[in-house]
């Protein structure tokens, strides 16, 4: 698809939205959201037409206490046909817990930036790759597919740009180890549209059969523009976060992930088919402030859909009649 001609006409093209707010968003919250509320929200999201929901993360409760109920959440949610319920796992113990709790997929994370990987995971990239290779072996032996999310693909806040060949090299190694999909992550919102298009094009040319997801943050207000650039380059699968929840400790004060309901709203107006129920997503997003204890970034939640019309002012009839009377007097 050409950005200069057809990129803004979806013409019914099918795209797939994957909800990450229930993991990526909730892990950033300082309050513990009750387990039953997490389950109820995921159950409602299961009816919204999302292709995948990242329900939780099997991490240390000491590291991320907000997700200490991972087993209960994953076991007790209602599984909707056609929806993949994935979860993040950092190591083999996390993978064992997730597999036992019936995860449909495991999501592994490693940074393409050496500095970011050490700062975030306390390991070099080679150490991470060795550890995650063991997780892939364990998962595949259990018949559970693996997706690998590569962080800082579009830039590292400590190193700057990450060479594209470095990104593709790590993708190649994980795919060769048995990963079924790769997520290209804009971890701190450093991506820009022409860079996104070049990266997606290169990935598709190198790995035409591999599953590819784009994961953008709206840190610098370019989230939607980057989604559209990725679509123009052939991408069709995107992570997004309900209400725009999320963020990154290396971008303090910045907004979170691209907002699920805003992306669905924009793509629908452009003619793309996301399969998502926008009113239901908005209803789910409207429940977030009470759950997290603060406002959420979603502008669509505040303003409503484009054609959510409002009644005229209370004195509209009076001013209309006066204006019409002036027209009649001038015509007489």
How would you sum up this structure, described in words?
- The chain has 332 residues and is α/β, with parallel strands linked by helices.
- It has one domain (16-331): TIM Barrel (Alpha-Beta Barrel), CATH 3.20.20.
- Helix content is 42%, strand content 13%.
- It contains 14 helices and eight strands.
- It has helices at residues 21-25, 35-45, 70-76, 92-100, 114-121, 125-141, 164-177, 193-206, 223-232, 260-269, 278-286, 288-292, 299-303, 316-331; strands at 16-19, 52-57, 84-88, 105-111, 146-151, 181-185, 211-215, 237-240.
- An eight-stranded parallel β-barrel has the order 1-2-3-4-5-6-7-8, surrounded by six helices.
- Strand 2 (52-57), helix 3 (70-76) and strand 3 form a beta-alpha-beta unit.
- The chain is globular and about 90 Å long.
Attribute tags:
8-stranded parallel beta barrel; 332 residues; disordered N terminus; TIM Barrel; alpha/beta
Task: Report helical residue fraction.
Answer: 40-55%
Coarse structural class: alpha/beta
Specify Rg, calculated over alpha carbons: 22 Å
CATH architecture: Alpha-Beta Barrel
Report, as a whole number of angstroms, the end-to-end distance. Answer: 58 Å
Please state the oligomeric state of the protein chains shown.
Answer: single chain
Morphology call: globular
Mean pLDDT: 94
Task: Report strand order across the widest sheet.
Answer: 1-2-3-4-5-6-7-8
Q: How many beta-strand runs?
A: 8
Question: Helix count, per DSSP?
Answer: 14
């Amino acid at each position: 698809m050409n950005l200069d001609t057809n990129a803004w006409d979806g013409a019914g093209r099918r795209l797939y939205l994957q909800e990450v707010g229930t993991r990526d968003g909730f892990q950033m919250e300082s309050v513990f959201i009750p387990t039953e509320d997490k389950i109820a929200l995921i159950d409602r999201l299961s009816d919204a037409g999302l292709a995948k929901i990242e329900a939780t993360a099997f991490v240390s409760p000491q590291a991320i206490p907000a997700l200490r109920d991972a087993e209960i959440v994953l076991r007790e949610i209602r599984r909707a046909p056609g929806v993949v319920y994935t979860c993040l796992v950092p190591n083999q113990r996390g993978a064992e817990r997730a597999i036992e709790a019936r995860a449909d997929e495991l999501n592994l994370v490693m940074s393409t930036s050496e500095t970011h990987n050490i700062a975030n995971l306390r390991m070099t990239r080679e150490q991470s790759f060795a550890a995650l290779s063991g997780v892939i072996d364990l998962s595949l032996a259990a018949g559970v597919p693996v997706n690998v999310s590569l962080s800082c693909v579009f830039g590292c806040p400590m190193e700057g740009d990450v060479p594209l060949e470095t990104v593709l090299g790590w993708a190649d190694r994980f795919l060769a180890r048995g990963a079924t999909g790769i997520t290209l992550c804009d971890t701190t919102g450093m991506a820009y549209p022409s860079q996104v298009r070049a990266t997606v094009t290169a990935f598709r040319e190198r790995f035409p059969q591999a599953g590819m997801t784009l994961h953008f943050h709206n840190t610098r207000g370019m989230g939607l523009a980057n989604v559209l650039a990725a679509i123009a380059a052939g991408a069709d699968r995107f992570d997004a976060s309900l209400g725009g929840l999320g963020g990154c400790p290396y971008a303090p004060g910045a907004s979170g992930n691209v907002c699920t309901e805003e992306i669905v709203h924009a793509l629908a107006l452009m003619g793309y088919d996301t399969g998502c129920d926008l009113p239901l997503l908005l209803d789910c997003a409207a429940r977030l402030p009470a759950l997290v204890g603060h406002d959420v970034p979603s502008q669509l939640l505040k303003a409503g859909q484009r054609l959510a019309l409002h009644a005229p002012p209370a004195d509209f009839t009076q001013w209309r009649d006066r204006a019409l009377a002036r027209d009649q007097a001038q015509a007489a």
